[in-house]
Amino acid sequence: MLRSIALASVIAAFAIVLFYYGDLPAKVPTHFDLNGEADAFGNKIWLWFLPALNLGLYALLGNIHRLPKSMFNYPVKLTKENEERQFDNIVLMNQVLRAFLCLGIAYTCWSIVATALGRSSGLSDWFFWVFTMGTFAIVGYFVRRSIQLK
């Protein structure tokens, strides 16, 4: 299910940009302040960067399990007894992060398009805090879980 959420977010980001690209003005928001208001603008071609970033993130975090187990930084001492549990925890954390981050990037694409078309005044004022705190909460949860799986 996490893979499906992340993939749907990647597809949605590309679809949003593709569908609305012809209607966008030459300049679109490229940065939002902490209140969600656009405070920098650039060429609309820049908007393709976000779906591409989303796809790259999807691929990178989706293939993290292929790396050797020893390449990860575990919050507990790794032993033969806990190695598999710890690695599975890291992989699951990356799957949850991938879904969360891909959703956030797709939402950002939509917000940029909506703002550029005058349908919105920017990112929701809660977005920065939810996105930032959500990311830390996910990592914190899995660090705690790793310690419990010791």
Written account of the structure:
The protein is mainly alpha-helical and 150 residues long. It has four helices and two strands; from the N terminus they run H-E-E-H-H-H. It has a two-stranded antiparallel ribbon. Helix 1 runs parallel beside helix 3. The longest helix has 34 residues. The chain is elongated and about 60 Å long. The mean pLDDT is 92.
Major beta-sheet overview:
2 strands, antiparallel
Could you say which structural class the secondary elements and strand pairing correspond to?
Answer: mainly alpha
Number of DSSP-assigned strands:
2
Number of helices: 4
What's the alpha carbon Rg, rounded to whole Å? 18 Å
Task: Give the structure's gist in a few sentences.
With 150 residues, the chain is mainly alpha-helical.
